[in-house]
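Two proteins were folded this term; both appear here.
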Amino acid sequence: MTATINRVPCTVVTGFLGSGKTTLIRNVLENANGKRVAIIVNEFGDVGIDGDILKGCGIDTCPEENVVELANGCICCTVADDFLPALDQILSREPKVDHILIETSGLALPKPLVQAFQWPAIKGRVTVDGVIAVVDGPALADGRVASDMDALAAQRAADDSLDHDDPVEEVFEDQVACADLIILSKSDLLEQDALSAVSGKLANHLTRAVKIVPTANGGIDPSVLMGLGLAVEDDIDNRKTHHDDVDDHEHDDFDSFVIELPAIGDPDELARRVAAVAEAENVLRLKGFAHVEGKPMRLVLQAVGPRVSHYYDRPWTPQEERRTRLVVIGQKGLDRSAVEAILAA
């Protein structure tokens, strides 16, 4: 194993859409005990929602300039074009960072990203401290890897020619296969029997000993996630995934687009419309910011299938344009006009 002395440790946080990665990272930042942290956030879509949430933390040890967003494509597909320049940018910061957190998009495969750490240009400067997979506990308890999989399951059941797992399942299984630690999110929503059953399901996907840690609201001691010292790049080729023989992985099975709406009067009404769109269309994830009439604060809205939450995170700054922008992510063939009609109703 390559020595990690003088190399900056990087933690890769992976997990399916809406599993709770950003909440987990925000908690880590708030409890980093003086450790200087930088973050690379990979968005699937045209607007950096997760990055803006993290930039709004106001934590001295992770200033806004230490949050770098990659919104031009999945990080596992654009390593050379996007990830390496972002890494160079972070490593040039003064004072030097102690740790880098990489939040992948919900659709990213961790293996190609970790393999990039084997490249001579970066191998001597950084190391993968560990790969963390965040899993949606309530969804998995219901037999799904995301909140709203009913439409996809019906489509699969109707197609007798399919003899393999659907793309969403494969992405999920690849993320779990590469993990050194699994965070089972939203565990407070599960009874003990369901929690045990979910842990058993995850164990069935594992070919080696990996700890499964239940959490609520991203609450976990950062020392559980950081400082593992595993140099995962030296072992990643031994972690078998669905895509080991695929030369070029693309996300042709997903659609993503941004919808802009006028200022809203009632956050609860917007949440009801978002839940309605998840029920009516094949929407996996919806997230964004909203301008609420008469309110100086920015509203953050997050939805995983029909589960919707919203909260005010901070005041709008004088330099910002107050507007409502929502990123919608779903299966290929998502009907944009239908989604827009419901949200604008």
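Next, the second protein.
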Amino acid sequence: MKKFTSLAVSLFVAAAAFAQSSTYFKITGKVVDINSKAPMQAASVFAQNTTMGTATGTDGTFTLWLPNGGYDLVITFAGYETSVKRITTADASDSNMVIVMKQQVKSMDEVAIKTSNELKDGLERFGSFFMENFIGKTTNSKQCDIKNKEALKFYFSKKRNRLKVRADEPLLIENAALGFRIKYSLDSFTHDYNTSSSIYAGYPLFEEMQPLDAAQQDMWKANRARAYKGSILHFMRSTYNKQLKEEGFEIQFIVKANGVDTAIKGLDFYGALNYDRNDSTQIIEINPNQTEVAIIYKNELPDKTYTDANEDAPAKYELSFVTFLPAQAIGIEQNGYYFDQNDITMSGYWSWEKVADMVPYDFKIE
């Protein structure tokens, strides 16, 4: 979750006051061209899905202060391929990080495919559909808008019955419900009409909007807390801290009995998840006994928009389903960042909540 331009100058920089805080760690490095090894000035460097980023100086160097945990560090520069590096608190001791950037090269086949499949009236035909499946259909989505929709490019394959959407610059999203502006570098959005499934990937950078008054600030604070509670981020942090029950979560495992799916409640959540903590890296791993897991969040009613659209959905709690790859553990950092994210798929309530209900990894309940 990619491409930033010289807009890097507007990125937020973490305050130097964090230097004395044990809850933050410092990342330093240098960005260079892979061929000339020349330093690249004004490259955008940010921790994706956070409010924290900066731009490289004249010598190509950068410094970031980040809350303890894990992140995807994203480096972008116009005309170059996006570089992504997973970082964690342990990288604070590495002061010689060098990021090499490759220039973008488009093959003739790629150009031909894009030219032949691009829809000139794509925004008019599929704009609303894209907004519903990318921004979402929640209450918050009604106050969320993309300010530069003209950057969207739509491609449709009749043979595959598939819609693809790309953007030739970062999408500028304004979420008036949560008080965030998001620069979202959209890698791709794909909707398969044969399976009615949508997949999108990109790199968001959050910026807090300035409230008009105290009332708006209080509204944003409440809405952010509501968006966070019961989310995948909330679940991962609660798992990390062994606070699932205390935070309102319940886990059930889906098993097949005579061809019928049956939910079995786990009495020992952490034993059934094969919870394992590495004291040296402060990373935990989970590898559930069953690949199909139901996640119930009891401390909040589901959005009425969701229950109205899904008649079989429970009305008194939020129900999500997670499918893990067999025998594949995922790692969780203390800030709720988890990897490898491609090793799990989600359905139910979590798949319904999209960009309009995202909060950054550095979000905390006050």
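Residues 1-20 have pLDDT under 50 and may be disordered. The two ends are 27 Å apart (CA to CA). These notes refer to the second protein only.
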